[in-house]
Specification:
Pathway: Nucleotide-sugar biosynthesis; UDP-alpha-D-glucuronate biosynthesis; UDP-alpha-D-glucuronate from UDP-alpha-D-glucose: step 1/1. This protein is an alpha/beta fold. It has two domains: 192 residues, 3-Layer(aba) Sandwich (Rossmann fold); 254 residues, NAD(P)-binding Rossmann-like Domain (Rossmann fold). Helices cover 47% and strands 13% of the residues. It has 19 helices and 14 strands. The strands form two sheets. An eight-stranded mixed β-sheet has the order 3-2-1-4-5-6-7-8, with helices on both faces. A six-stranded parallel β-sheet has the order 11-10-9-12-13-14. Helix 11 packs antiparallel against helix 12 and helix 12 crosses helix 13. The radius of gyration is 24 Å and the shape is elongated. The structure holds 1,4-dihydronicotinamide adenine dinucleotide and uridine-5'-diphosphate-glucuronic acid. 1,4-dihydronicotinamide adenine dinucleotide binds next to helix 1 and helix 5. 1,4-dihydronicotinamide adenine dinucleotide (NAI) binds next to helix 1 and helix 5.
Amino acid sequence: MNLAVIGTGYVGLVTGVCFSDIGHRVTCVDKDAAKVEKLRAGQSPIYEPGLEELIRKNMNEGRLHVTTDLESAVEEAEIVVLAVGTPQSVNGEANLQYIEQAAREVATAMNGYKIIVVKSTVPVGTNERIAARIGGLTEHPFDVVSVPEFLREGSAIKDTFHPDRIVIGAASREAAEKIKELHQPLTTKMMLTDLRSAEMIKYASNAFLATKISFINEIANLCELVGADVAQVAQGMGYDRRIGDSFLNAGVGYGGSCFPKDTQALIQIAGNVNYDFKLLRSVVEVNKNQRFNVFNQLVRLLNGLHHKTVGVWGLSFKPNTDDVRDAPSLEIVGMLLASGAKVKIYDPVAMERFCEMLNDPSVICCSSASEAASNSDAVCLLTEWDEFRHLDLKHIASLMRQPILVDGRNVYTAEDLNGAGLIYRSVGRPMLSSPVQEEENVSALQA
Ligand SMILES: NC(=O)C1=CN([C@@H]2O[C@H](COP(=O)(O)OP(=O)(O)OC[C@H]3O[C@@H](n4cnc5c(N)ncnc54)[C@H](O)[C@@H]3O)[C@@H](O)[C@H]2O)C=CC1
Ligand SMILES: O=C(O)[C@H]1O[C@H](OP(=O)(O)OP(=O)(O)OC[C@H]2O[C@@H](n3ccc(=O)[nH]c3=O)[C@H](O)[C@@H]2O)[C@H](O)[C@@H](O)[C@@H]1O
């Protein structure tokens, strides 16, 4: 089939590249000329494992094209996929200006029947409004189909090739069947539904996952007070198939470009029909507070932060991505700086994006985890990149002014810490070193 994908962000680019890889002819469109130039040179504008190789392969084999020329791409396509951003507005609602603009541009470029697939996450009723708007601008026939996206950054290619399900919301059975056919090589687990239910499935799924995270973070906070270990608790809960073992990792809370904005948007969607979504409001509040956990531990252990040096390991909102949108690191580094600490940061891929977003020249950029730890009074780990799991902690401790490690992602085990000489704190777990060892570490620190 012939596809045009509008928007080459995390979703549009991965979708376009994967569809070209299974044999379709795909033109990816973006209004950002710099992004398009980079793509034309075979470079991915985002860090996503495996993506650049697939871009090059499919461009070389002539199935994948990139352009800023939306009109020509739409003219040639039978299916037009909208994958532009729907960021959060100041009042929490989804900002629909980009999708509305893209829909207008598609409408005026149409030269015959098209199926318009909306992949962007949009509030209930938006697909119908988009259809009405397009209908007002073109004489040509079309159908709007909602196909919400469930990929995760960092594993986007795998998630696209092996989705848990494809949800297809449409008013037209024929258009839905065509979109089903498009996805047939990827999975047989497809659900056909109406537009509004498809839109709600997306928000409900993200809100449910966010709820799981806030729930386990509350359990972690309670574990700290009653002397239980949240990792053990999550493992024990996860054996129950009705609960499942995923999304039960306690830590500094969820971030990223989706959970924070989509939970907020769903609260707003409910508010617009006078429904108070109490549970979700608590989920958001718990998540906000969770970011203070690591910060408070640092304040306590260092007896205040003024003139102290803190190393930060990990800046992206999760491993295997350079995305720092709404990353807990932004807020935590901001709080450290505001409290008078000197902050040394390190992330394997997200340094540039983080510094752009933080926009504070006083932060010190390091080129390795050990450089960030060197002469620091404490280190805190905020993203569980694999490389942090393989560090020689004894060596790290020897580089530090004070050997304090606050692990915001519960990465290390008692075995990793054995003999490292660290004062170690994590989230919702008891001290992992034996009381004797901990006492020795503390007295070494005080000596
Ligand atoms: N990032 C993710 O992991 C996921 C995102 N989503 C949803 O997918 C949508 C897209 O998200 P991202 O890919 O993260 O967005 P993004 O912000 O990374 O990319 C959007 C792209 O669209 C381009 N664009 C905007 N208006 C345009 C126009 N009129 N013509 C051509 N290009 C245009 C922008 O220049 C930008 O490159 C959002 O609604 C998001 O909630 C859904 C699932 C996963
Ligand atoms: O709508 C979206 O954009 C996407 O949002 C999430 O994907 P993503 O944000 O890429 O990453 P996740 O793996 O879900 O992690 C989100 C946040 O939750 C945190 N998290 C995740 C799992 C966990 O157990 N604990 C936890 O704190 C992560 O560190 C991260 O900050 C969903 O998992 C995707 O299905 C969805 O398509």
